[in-house]
Design goal:
Elements (H helix, E strand, L loop, with lengths): L1 E2 L14 E2 L15 E4 L1 H4 L5 H4 L3 H7 L3 E4 L33 H13 L3 E6 L3 E2 L30 E2 L5 H18 L3 E4 L7 H14 L4 E4 L5 H4 L6 E3 L1 H11 L5 H14 L5 E4 L4 H7 L2 H5 L3 H10 L3 E5 L26 H14 L13 E2 L7 E10 L2 E10 L5 E4 L5 E4 L4 E9 L2
Parallel strand pairs: 1-17, 2-14, 3-4, 3-12, 4-5, 5-8, 8-9, 9-10, 10-11, 11-12
Antiparallel strand pairs: 6-7, 13-14, 14-15, 15-18, 16-17
Helix pairs in contact: 8-9, 12-13
C-alpha cells in the first residue's frame, strides 16, 4: 500500500496520450498563462495605479502572465451605490477615474507591466452606462420604458441598459474600444455580462479590432452562451458551473460524479478550442457570496489545484496571494488583508510553475484532454492528462480525496493510496516515449 503526499512527485507508466493540435486558435502566449484580476481600489492602501506598480514584481515572481484590470473609467454620480460607486457604472468610456490616478499614471503602469512581460486586458462594460453618461442624451442609444425613463436590469439601479439596435451607438462603442487599444495600448478585453450583449456585435467588433491587433486576448463573462461567443469573438469564457460544483462538493452538497457530469456537459456543449477560466473566487464571489475560505473551508487548496489541473486557464483574484480572509466591500474603500507569513503565495507560485513546466496542462487546444481513471472509491477524483509531441511525452495524473473523511482508494492499475480529508497527489512524467 502506498501513502501519497498531497503534492507528491512520481514517475507513472505511459498510457494513451493526446497528440497536440497543429493549428492554434489563440495567441501563442496565452496557452501556459495564468490570469490575475486586479481590484485597483482594494489592492493597495492608496488604491491607485501608481501604487499598483509596486505589486508587479510580486506578480511576476509568482508566475502571473495576464493582468485583468477591473474598469477604471469615471463612475456615475446621480444613482451611485455607496460612497465610491460601482466600477461597472461608467460615465465616460475614454477617461480615467481620478480615484485611481490620471491617464499618465495608467500609461506608466501599463508600460512597466509590458516591460516586465505582462499582458494587460481591461474590463469592458458594453451592456450599460451610468444614467448620467453623456450617451443618455443621444436619441435611441438606451432602452426606455413607455414613459421615456431609462431602464435598469436586475437590482442594478445605478446603470442604464444600452440599445444595440442603434448602429450609431455600436459605432461609438467600437470607437471607444479602439481608443484603449490604439492610443493606450492594452492587450485585449474582459467583457462584463457578455451574454447580455448581442453576439453579432462582439463578432463584428472583435473582428475589426483584430485587423490591427491580431494578438489581442478576449474573455467573456458568460457560460450559457459560451459556444457562440467563442466561435470567433472570444478566446475564453467563465467556468461558472464548475465553480459552483466545487463549492457544493466542499459543502457536502454534491459529489465527484456531479463534477464529472459537469465536465461532460461542458465537453458536449462548448467548442473544444474554447478556454474555460477556472477559479475559486473573483470580485463577485468574494463580495457577495463570501471568501473562498468561507465557501470551501479546508478544501481551498485541493480545488485550487483542480483549477490548474483541468483544461482551461487558472485565475487568481486580488488578495489570494496574501491570504485575504475577508469579504471586500464593493462600493467602499476596503483594502485586502496582507499576511506576510501566509503560505498562499508560495503555494500559488508552485502551481504556476507546475502549469508552465507541463505542456499537458496548457490551455486548449495545445494541452491534453482530460481522461478519467477508474477507481473503487466514489469520493475520489482520479484523472490524467497526457500529451505526446513527437518523441516527447508529458503525462500528469491527479488523485484527490474530495471529502471531509479519510479515504483509501485502489486505482484501475492496482495501485492503492490513502488520503486525509481534502488531500491528494499530483504526479508527473516527462521524457521520450518508449
Amino acid at each position: 500500500m502506498k501513502k501519497a503526499l498531497f503534492f507528491a512527485l512520481a514517475l507513472i507508466g505511459l498510457m494513451s496520450c493526446a497528440k497536440q493540435a497543429e493549428e492554434l486558435r489563440h495567441p501563442k502566449w496565452a496557452y501556459d498563462a495564468t490570469i490575475y484580476e486586479l481590484n485597483t481600489r482594494q489592492a493597495t492602501p492608496e488604491g491607485t495605479f501608481a501604487a499598483a506598480e509596486g505589486l508587479l514584481p510580486m506578480l511576476k515572481e509568482n508566475g502571473i502572465d495576464i493582468i485583468w484590470v477591473m474598469p477604471c473609467q469615471p463612475i456615475g454620480v446621480i444613482t451611485r451605490k455607496g460612497t465610491l460607486g460601482s466600477y461597472y457604472s461608467i460615465i465616460d468610456y475614454c477617461a480615467i477615474n481620478p480615484e485611481f490616478g490620471t491617464r499618465a499614471d495608467f500609461e506608466h503602469f501599463l508600460a512597466k507591466a509590458h516591460k516586465m512581460g505582462f499582458k494587460v486586458i481591461l474590463d469592458w462594460v458594453a451592456n450599460h452606462t451610468a444614467p448620467d453618461s453623456e450617451w443618455t442624451k443621444n436619441e435611441g442609444w438606451h432602452y426606455r420604458d413607455s414613459l421615456g425613463n431609462l431602464m435598469v436590469q436586475y437590482d442594478w439601479t445605478d446603470i442604464s441598459k444600452l440599445n444595440y439596435e442603434n448602429q450609431d451607438m455600436r459605432n461609438e462603442m467600437l470607437k471607444c474600444m479602439h481608443w484603449w487599444m490604439d492610443s493606450i495600448g492594452i492587450d485585449g478585453f474582459r467583457c462584463d455580462v457578455a451574454g447580455e450583449v448581442p453576439t453579432d456585435f462582439w463578432n463584428w467588433a472583435m473582428s475589426d479590432l483584430r485587423q490591427t491587433h491580431p494578438d489581442m486576448f478576449t474573455l467573456a463573462e458568460d457560460e450559457d452562451k459560451a459556444d457562440e461567443l467563442t466561435e470567433s469573438a472570444f478566446d475564453m469564457y467563465y467556468g461558472w458551473s464548475l465553480h459552483h460544483v466545487m463549492n457544493e462538493i466542499a459543502q457536502g452538497k454534491a459529489s465527484v460524479e456531479d463534477l464529472w457530469a459537469n465536465l461532460a456537459k461542458t465537453d458536449s456543449t462548448i467548442r473544444p478550442e474554447a478556454i474555460r477560466m477556472n477559479f475559486i473566487t473573483n470580485h463577485d464571489e468574494n463580495s457577495w457570496n463570501g471568501t473562498e475560505f468561507e465557501r470551501m473551508g479546508d478544501a481551498v487548496k485541493l480545488f485550487t489545484i483542480l483549477c490548474y489541473f483541468l483544461p482551461g486557464m487558472p485565475m487568481i483574484y486580488t488578495g489570494q496571494l496574501s491570504g485575504n480572509h475577508h469579504r471586500l466591500e464593493f462600493f467602499e474603500k476596503d483594502v485586502i488583508d496582507i499576511d506576510e507569513e501566509h503560505a498562499q503565495a508560495e503555494f500559488l507560485h508552485n502551481m504556476n510553475l507546475m502549469r508552465k513546466h507541463n505542456p499537458a496542462l496548457f490551455s486548449p487546444e495545445k494541452g491534453a484532454p482530460l481522461e478519467r481513471i477508474g477507481c473503487d472509491n466514489e469520493a475520489i477524483f482520479a484523472a490524467k492528462r497526457c500529451l505526446r509531441e513527437g518523441k516527447k511525452v508529458n503525462e500528469v495524473i491527479a488523485v484527490m480525496n474530495m471529502s471531509d473523511q479519510p479515504q483509501k482508494v485502489t486505482l484501475e492499475n492496482g495501485e492503492t493510496y490513502e488520503f486525509e480529508p481534502w488531500k491528494g497527489m499530483i504526479s508527473f512524467e516527462q521524457g521520450k516515449k518508449k
